[in-house]
Fold each of these.
Amino acid sequence: MNKDDYEFAFFAGEKYYISSVVGIIVSIIFPLFLIASIQGHDSEHNLGSSSSYSYSSASAEKGSVEGFLIFFAIIASVIIITLIVRSMNAEKDSKYPILAGTAEEMVFRLSNGNVHFLEWEIIDSISHKQVVDYDEDGGSSTSHYICPKTKKGEVFEISISKLDENYSDIQQVLHKYHSEISLIDF
């Protein structure tokens, strides 16, 4: 589909790419911080101790555990970086926006990568859904979705977390181009 065919289109924004780069930086810094803290801890112990056999044996066991931790941290970081880079490349290379509309149909991409095309006349309503997830520490994160519902009752959840625009921006665009569709919970 040609980008000129879209009445409106929402692609992943700067906020998505910036948060991905921050994730990569943290994944690089974590193993380096772990290595530096272990080496700093070892040098403190070596300064004030005598070189006895029991210390050497305990130090060797401790060194193998520390080596395993460093190895595990590096492997985990490489996996995380690989997943983030793949996600960024998939987003950049995608020929379809996260949410768009032509004169005839609504085009959107779900979180699993599947692209759907819905003709405007089969869409009954479009709603905004907000999901709050709580973690063990008492913190929370909020996810926003745009949910088109067809006249047959099918409901799709389009995550807008990668967009710089928020749900009220999307509501204004939908109202501008397709005021015949009822917008719920915006």
Amino acid sequence: MICSVQTATYSLLLTKLLELLFLQDPEFFKYLEECDKELLDFNDDSIDDDQETDEEPRSVPKEEPKQSVKPITMEMVDSWCNGAEDGKIGSIRSVLQAFRRACHYGEDSGDNSAPKFSVMSGSVLDKVMHFVLKNMDNVLRQLLGAPSFGGKKEKISELMLTKTWKRHGSLMRVYLVNALHMITEMTDEQMIAFTIHRVRASAVFLAAFPSLLRKYVKALLYTWARGRGAMPLVSFLFLRDLCIQVGQDCLDMCLKGIYKAYLVNCKLAKSIGGSKLQQIQFLGNCVKELYSVDPQSAYQHAFVFIRQLAVILRGVLTERGPKTPKDKTKKERGKPTNKQLEKSYQKVYDWQYIFCLELWTSVVCGCSSEEDFRPLAYPLTQIIHGVACLVPSARYFPVRIRCVKMLNCIAEATGTFIPVSSLLLDMLEMKELRGRPDGGVGKAVNLINVKQVDKKTVKTRAFQEACIYSVVNELAKHLAQWSYSIAFFEMSFLPLVQLRNFCKSIKADRFRKEMKDLIREVEANVEFISSKRAGVAFSPNDPAVDSFLQVEKEERSSPLSRYVATLHQRAQNRIDAMDETSVIVGAESSTFSRRLSEVQKQQDDNEEKIGFSKNLLAEKKKTKTAKEKTKKRARDHDDVPTEEDVVEDLIISSDEEEDENNDLESDEDGSAPVEDDSDEDFIDPDSAYKKQKKAKLKKRNKYQPSNKASSKTKWKPHPKKKAKH
């Protein structure tokens, strides 16, 4: 009591002194207020705290009252959903708040500002997620006065100037932010695809939030490139809607990002499987579709990327360096070795480079009707021709065949003549295709799945067969493109001469028969053109040449056109016989409208089957299990030396426990070595003599430095040499 009276008197005295100081010297008081504000903010609590610290604590401090948490029931959710459909602001806010808690379900909130609704059951979580993802777009559109479906960036810009947007525009941001959190944090592919499919309806509103738009584009590019099932297609359709609805701001970002994501997927080994080839073909079709949205803007990006390919090829071609006088020695010339040249060639003969060429071939062919993209056909043709002629070796015949297919596609799409026959006829002049193979029959070779073959495969009959059939197919396709030209006789003269010479030199009957069939069809087409142009009165320079055999060309009734159709079917049957997949390189791109309807039907069928609560609970449980097992491993292996830069996969399922039990059983049986300084793995515990030896070894190890590295490996004498004693 006396202490409290003294404290009150002291506090009153200090207060009066401060008031007196303010009246007498206001400048000094202002200085104290700026420099040492704590001195002026004097109160009784500070003195009480100081006195309590000097004395022993007499009572336990009271805990701060926790914020009350209300559980969310199904009745509350039903009332909110009905109110949100009627346009009530309070119900919409409550539903979005519950949606936020559902999106962050199972996460630890470190701050004290947790929402008042934090507890919900699994059925309530599913109800909230399904309602928000299905109906929140329509609800917010009615509230904000936006169009009922779709829209453009200009409409959103006008909407942002209204009072309704300033009041309730943040609700749309809350919805989009939490949906993005679900897309980036979930691991279940079906849930991610369903979320992207539903949020796609609100894509146009991302024009109002530029930072959120960039995050969405980044997340969608990742799910498009790395996802499986319906997720890549749904992500691409979302990106396509963003490019169409948002406009130029999003288009440039998507065109750059989708090309870089495509490059990442093209980093492959020497050979690839059919499923990976299908995936890359689908991704290429997506890039082609996105670049066709706005050809004028896409031309700038395509020009830059094609120029990069040309720069790489030019660097490889100039790797040998400029020519030097012959009087200089080999060292002075600085000529690179064969290994250096082969390493430089691998920059071009790489899957990433080859797939990029095929991508831009499909883009240029798909946009060949556009005037903006037609100028890119010429430099792309020069690059492909340079790649085909870079290394004239039989080991790189698969790359040359791919280049010929690309050139045929460009010629057919643009209607320009490209001298492809010389690339194919040069292959027939090489000894690997003319002579008898020395390596036997060999395994079947699929030139689609490889870019380079080894020296042993080149000498096999299977490789010779695959190359000759490919030459026949591509040469027939090239000649069939011009089988309606009035100059076909002159165009086919040199190929016919070289094909006849090859038939005379080849010794295999089946290859000779294949070549004779091609020669017969070419000669039949020559007679077909000669008979038609015999009754023509105009000259080759006359513009009327364009109308020559126009009806026959639409009906595709020439002998070579019918022959190419049979060859195409035969080649497809041969590929299906070698592989289980049916992938055709250069085939027509998939119809996105048909695939969209299939995916949408699948999403609608699985809509009620998707259980967000089960998946989120499973993810939360897995996360806890992983953390517990990580801690357990850390405790168990504190004394065991570990190697640096070693990362082990964390097994979350029950297989890890079985592996640990198996390891314990093997240790008890003595079959697995024990990582210890002593030689326990040499001791039989059932032998008394060995037990005594074990005790002696332990006693001796106390006086000798331990070598943990040597305990892991046992020294054994060479079987042919006797151990020295």
